[in-house]
């Protein structure tokens, strides 16, 4: 006998089931192939290519030469789609950004269970959804191109301090450049002046990064592959990962909370230096109102990402610039001639000079292109199935843009391994026909929202150091100038390993000028 009470439910269930089965088997996608890619081994598939530790960007680049600008690697249920041209990256990550803006699911780092590190509170790791959207919007409001100039006095004032530090102890240039970049981030974000040594906020930020490096590689912890392990009780042997997760969860929470609390306290005392945090707090709903708690969480966590995402990346570009100047005295001389004629000898370039400093702009572009600091960008993930050029790209596919390959493409750049700023200039202007190297900042809705601040910081660093200093190569055993340098072969961000170079004021006059600079008057 038919159970009338459940009849509609049963019919709906059968129809729904039939709908899904038919959709699966009759859909175009089920008849379409996956994008091509190297044939893997039985069961493990392409795990060797995916898990490649040494210069995976070069390995992917070689595969692209055989399979074209889009290929798929498959292993143990994971699909990794590698994009190797601007065209495909634009068509998928930009034009279809509603589908391609997720991040890969990393259970230990960001999983949805208690024993996790909660690193998805940093919106750079968050899944595409309302939390990511709110935090990204809060961040963007204070760092978009129309308002980033609010931080110029900090970028410039701290550069004066950098020049003085370089004049006093040029051998410690690495430390000085790093401190400059961190001062810019912490002053503009929180209005705090960080300490030269053992700053507590920097220590927390560095430990947070350690957690990312230690636990961010899927497969380091078994729970990444067998999420059911989260149910194993804490006292059970082999559950040490839970303590690791708790440790870093607390560190990362403190890294976001402590500088924020400092701003709140200083605002109460009426002594807060204006900053992004203080501006955010001033524009919030009244304390005690329903919206307030979420607004505070979003603002605090949106700002927390600044040091984590912005410090090492900007440092990689800045140190590479120093290295390239030591290697290329002819480029340096040309830049100094431009600075002297546009700004004047013994003067510091300002942001007003920027449109006229074409060669400086070309050096900045070429440094980014030559280095490709984040060679594989940050991985995206598809949030639904897609069909592109006759191939099916399943939901949950990890999508990697091989920025290294794009900016190293001989079809786009002659002699791509050479550092040639002139390639970006035509008829005394930046040549818009040359492929924009700012792919280093990623693509689509996830494109780096700190890029305007990064570029303004790098412009200031490049123009002000070249206006005051000569950078040269140390002499080798035979008395010839030689810069010995190397780059790490693994990691998300590639920054030069420690190298030596000689930094000196350009002349006695420049030396004199450096002595008279007062950082406080330049803010
Ligand atoms: C030269 C310096 C920098 C480079 C090369 C760089 C590069 C990148 C790249 C490749 C991404 C991933 C984009 C994607 O998923 O497609 C990214 C994301 C991000 N960057 Fe940067 N970045 C730099 C500086 C900064 C700075 C200074 C900040 C902050 C002040 C910052 C904040 C962020 C954030 C918050 C994200 C995550 C965006 C999201 O997931 O929605 N970056 N960056």
From TrEMBL:
<keyword id="KW-0479">Metal-binding</keyword>
<keyword id="KW-0503">Monooxygenase</keyword>
<dbReference type="GO" id="GO:0005506">
    <property type="term" value="F:iron ion binding"/>
</dbReference>
<dbReference type="GO" id="GO:0020037">
    <property type="term" value="F:heme binding"/>
</dbReference>
<keyword id="KW-0349">Heme</keyword>
<keyword id="KW-0812">Transmembrane</keyword>
<feature type="binding site" description="axial binding residue">
    <location>
        <position position="448"/>
    </location>
    <ligand>
        <name>heme</name>
    </ligand>
</feature>
<keyword id="KW-0560">Oxidoreductase</keyword>
<dbReference type="GO" id="GO:0016705">
    <property type="term" value="F:oxidoreductase activity, acting on paired donors, with incorporation or reduction of molecular oxygen"/>
</dbReference>
<comment type="pathway">
    <text>Secondary metabolite biosynthesis.</text>
</comment>
<dbReference type="InterPro" id="IPR001128">
    <property type="entry name" value="Cyt_P450"/>
</dbReference>
<dbReference type="InterPro" id="IPR050364">
    <property type="entry name" value="Cytochrome_P450_fung"/>
</dbReference>
<keyword id="KW-0472">Membrane</keyword>
<protein>
    <submittedName>
        <fullName>Cytochrome P450</fullName>
    </submittedName>
</protein>
<keyword id="KW-1133">Transmembrane helix</keyword>
<dbReference type="GO" id="GO:0004497">
    <property type="term" value="F:monooxygenase activity"/>
</dbReference>
<dbReference type="Pfam" id="PF00067">
    <property type="entry name" value="p450"/>
</dbReference>
<comment type="similarity">
    <text>Belongs to the cytochrome P450 family.</text>
</comment>
<feature type="transmembrane region" description="Helical">
    <location>
        <begin position="6"/>
        <end position="22"/>
    </location>
</feature>
<dbReference type="InterPro" id="IPR036396">
    <property type="entry name" value="Cyt_P450_sf"/>
</dbReference>
<dbReference type="InterPro" id="IPR017972">
    <property type="entry name" value="Cyt_P450_CS"/>
</dbReference>
<dbReference type="InterPro" id="IPR002401">
    <property type="entry name" value="Cyt_P450_E_grp-I"/>
</dbReference>
<keyword id="KW-0408">Iron</keyword>
